[in-house]
Design goal:
Blueprint lengths: L1 H9 L2 H20 L15 H34 L17 H30 L8 E8 L2 E10 L5 E5 L1 E5 L4 E7 L4 E4 L6 E4 L5 E5 L11 E5 L11 E7 L1 H12 L2 E2 L4 H12 L7 E5 L2 E5 L2 E6 L2 E6 L12 E2 L4 E2 L2 H9 L1 H4 L24 H13 L2
Parallel strand pairs: 1-5, 4-10, 11-12
Antiparallel strand pairs: 1-2, 2-3, 5-8, 6-7, 6-9, 9-10, 12-13, 14-15, 16-17
Helix pairs in contact: 3-4, 6-9, 7-9
Bound molecules: dinuclear copper ion.
Dinuclear copper ion binds next to loops.
């Protein structure tokens, strides 16, 4: 006892400092969480679907926090108020059973659970409901290792195909968009935290998710999206963007994207087209217009699931490559410099497995180094960036 007492006296200063550290450190961590969220935050919903999910989270969190504070407060009060005091060795009153208290303590949690359960179950059904009707925009989504294919099935071009784009989804503001999704290879997951929850894309199956956004996005600030299911080497680089436009701007975008790309007849772009039509179209698709009319280039395969047919490309459609802000799973800004670096050695910029490609069977695991000369690359870049 003496040793303990003396230790307590002489050491009373340092433990107090330590105690301060133990108190302040968690506080600092807690406050760090208030430093504002990144662009991929589900806590800053920008559309009705994401808002429904956020409201549920807030409701459950508030009730759980309330219960936590009440229980901890009662516990701490009891610990201090009824602690054993020196010289007081009375035995506390022993009780067994208290029906009134037990009924109250059963009813209160039941009411709390019901107040959480009803809105949560209703919210799950609301969020899972497949949007339908004449005002709903229908888009097919195909997940690929490691990029996204978007097809606007209501908008068919001169080649008779649905408008197809890659990694950048355009939607009109204040409009429900029903995404009908599947995968061409392994399981992926579609996730735009600011607009909706996650939904897996499973090969051989169809899944749906509803997107809706309140306001148009500035051109350089689209909603960031991300594959949320580990799908191999470049999973982290399987990103995409959702651009929201006014109805008029969206209609103009659709009209422009439905136009075929022009086959250039002179200059670097014409040389680029030579390379393009001999090399790139082994995997990439494009709809082009020349003196002979409109031609569809590149392979595709039909994925039939129930009564839905997905026309899956092998690689991103390049018809309007120059109009995109990003490329390669929305990983890089679309600049001439980046595209040239990419064509020169794609695997140096993004981890992929092009050596495993089996083009004949539509199994593509990344763009290979095609061994093009720097002149060929430059003219190819001129061609692609000219296809706005
Ligand atoms: Cu696709 Cu992860």
């Amino acid at each position: 006892v003496n040793r303990l007492d003396s230790k307590k006296r002489t050491g009373s200063r340092r433990p107090r400092h330590l105690r301060l550290v133990f108190l302040v450190a968690p506080l600092v961590l807690l406050l760090a969480a208030c430093s504002g969220s990144g662009p991929q935050s589900a806590l800053e919903p920008q559309g009705p679907v994401a808002r429904t999910i956020n409201h549920l989270w807030l409701l459950v969190f508030s009730i759980a926090a309330g219960v936590f504070i009440l229980v901890e407060a009662a516990l701490i009060y009891a610990l201090i108020r009824y602690r054993a005091r020196k010289g007081d060795d009375r035995e506390p009153v022993q009780v067994h059973g208290n029906p009134k208290l037990e009924i109250i303590l059963t009813i209160i949690p039941a009411l709390i659970l019901a107040s959480i359960g009803y809105p949560v179950v209703k919210g799950i059904f609301d969020v899972r409901a497949i949007a339908s009707g004449p005002d709903v925009l229908q888009v097919h989504v195909i997940g690929h290792q490691w990029w996204w294919e978007f097809q606007y099935v209501d908008y068919v071009g001169q080649d008779g195909r649905a408008l197809t784009t890659a990694n950048e989804l355009y939607i009109p503001e204040d409009t429900e968009v029903n995404l009908t999704m599947t995968s061409a290879d392994v399981i992926h997951s579609f996730w735009v935290p600011t607009l909706a929850g996650k939904r897996d894309l499973v090969p051989g199956r169809i899944s749906n998710i509803t997107l809706a956004a309140d306001d148009p996005t500035p051109p350089d600030q689209p909603h960031p999206g991300q594959c949320a299911e580990f799908c191999g080497l470049a999973h982290a680089d399987m990103r995409f963007k959702v651009h929201v436009r006014t109805q008029a701007d969206f209609d103009a975008w659709i009209a422009a994207q439905l136009e075929p790309a022009t086959i250039p007849t002179q200059g670097a772009a014409a040389a680029g087209y030579e390379t393009f039509s001999n090399t790139c179209v082994a995997c990439h698709g494009a709809t082009v217009a020349g003196p002979d009319g409109v031609t569809r280039l590149g392979p595709e395969r039909q994925i039939e699931i129930g009564d839905v047919t997905f026309a899956a490309a092998y690689a991103p459609d390049l018809t309007h490559f120059g109009s995109r802000f990003t490329f390669a799973g929305s990983t890089f800004d679309n600049t001439e410099e980046h595209v040239a670096q990419w064509i020169e050695n794609p695997s140096a910029l993004k981890p992929m497995h092009p050596e495993l490609n089996d083009v004949a069977n539509g199994r593509i695991l990344g763009m290979p180094d095609l061994g093009l000369s720097s002149d060929q690359i430059d003219s190819l870049v001129t061609l692609l960036e000219g296809w706005k």
